[in-house]
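FAQ

Q: What does a record look like?
A: Structure on top, sequence underneath. For example:
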């Protein structure tokens, strides 16, 4: 059986990557949002303490992990009243994004809607399930037949933050057509000039969790991309049905990672420290881009500067590659990204200073 999945977009960057790598001062790779700063000590200690765990872990995760999630969402994002039973750890959030339509039992004839400019894995997940993908313009309600609506504020790639009232409208529109709402909140810990809110806040949810899922990742907030650590929570009935399928399918977070996640979710200091590292890099890169003639749109939160030189995206990728800087063309995220590039803040301070120098001299 063959299934038509999109080409893996980063493969098409290979020529530009080669040009950027040939720069005498080396490449500054800002094309992927992969963390470069250390794993927090508190997490390393927790991981190291649990090497001797020969038994199978539970798919639902330890009670301590689920309570740590509930505590972190309350402290960090003002989400109160969650029941630890309605928390489910995931092997990073990408696998959940890719498999959620399938785990919800969606298939041919079902519509899954997501933003016009979006993380590519939403579409991959729809295709894996054999369902129908629909890209929505800003504020556009999901069409009849939509069974799942993805929200993503702060957005990858644009860094756009939706207000609580705009998210509440999206939730109401989804409920109107009977769609589940999955809110991908993996950049919630990185606000710059706007205050993102969780779909689970009462001003968005209307005080009801039915049909709502919040998808979280520790990759960016705690530098744990290498551990594969995420979770989903929200509507207890939906979470229970996901748990049932995931138990059968062996989609289990390794127990040492569960311990590491528990430690990460119990400590907020490292999250603040990491946020300040990214803020400092953003404060250097954004004015350098402006000086070099770029306009930076949205980018109110999250890890990316959504930038344009008012020319086709690939021309901008080429212009940057000649200066040894690698960025992702906006077309990776949807056809309407054709005049933007996505520039990540995930480089060491030394590499970021190099990029700034190349852009401004
Ligand atoms: C919007 C969005 N969702 C989900 C993910 C997946 O993150 P992870 O699998 O590391 O949790 C990413 C990663 O960059 C992302 O940008």
């Amino acid at each position: 059986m063959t299934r038509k999945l999109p080409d893996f977009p980063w493969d098409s960057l290979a020529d530009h990557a080669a040009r950027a790598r040939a720069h005498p001062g080396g490449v500054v790779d800002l094309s992927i949002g992969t963390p470069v700063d250390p794993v927090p000590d508190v997490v390393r200690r927790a991981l190291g303490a649990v090497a001797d765990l020969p038994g199978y872990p539970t798919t639902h995760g330890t009670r301590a992990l689920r309570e740590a999630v509930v505590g972190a969402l309350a402290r960090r994002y003002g989400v109160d009243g969650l029941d630890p039973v309605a928390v489910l750890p995931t092997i990073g959030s990408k696998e959940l994004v890719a498999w959620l339509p399938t785990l919800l039992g969606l298939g041919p004839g079902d519509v899954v809607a997501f933003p016009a400019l979006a993380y590519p894995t939403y579409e991959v997940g729809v295709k894996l399930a054999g369902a129908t993908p629909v890209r929505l313009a800003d504020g556009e309600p999901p069409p009849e037949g939509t069974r799942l609506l993805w929200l993503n504020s702060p957005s990858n790639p644009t860094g756009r933050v939706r207000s609580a009232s705009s998210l509440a409208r999206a939730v109401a529109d989804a409920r109107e057509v009977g769609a589940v709402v999955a809110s991908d909140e993996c950049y919630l810990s990185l606000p710059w000039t706007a205050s993102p809110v969780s779909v689970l806040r009462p001003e968005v949810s209307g005080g009801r969790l039915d049909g709502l899922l919040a998808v979280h990742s520790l990759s960016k907030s705690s530098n744990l991309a290498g551990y594969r650590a995420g979770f989903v929570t929200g509507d207890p009935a939906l979470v229970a049905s996901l748990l049932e399928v995931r138990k059968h399918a062996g989609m289990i977070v390794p127990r040492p990672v569960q311990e590491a996640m528990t430690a990460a979710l119990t400590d907020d200091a490292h999250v603040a420290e990491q946020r300040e590292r990214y803020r400092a890099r953003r404060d250097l890169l954004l004015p350098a881009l402006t000086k070099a003639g770029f306009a930076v749109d949205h980018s109110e939160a999250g890890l990316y500067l959504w930038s344009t030189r008012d020319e086709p995206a690939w021309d901008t990728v080429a212009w940057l590659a000649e200066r040894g800087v690698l960025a992702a063309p906006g077309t990776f995220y949807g056809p309407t990204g054709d005049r933007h590039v996505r520039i990540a803040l995930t480089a060491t301070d030394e590499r970021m200073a190099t990029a700034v120098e190349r852009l401004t001299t």
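Q: Is there anything notable about this one?
A: The chain is about 40% helix and 15% strand.
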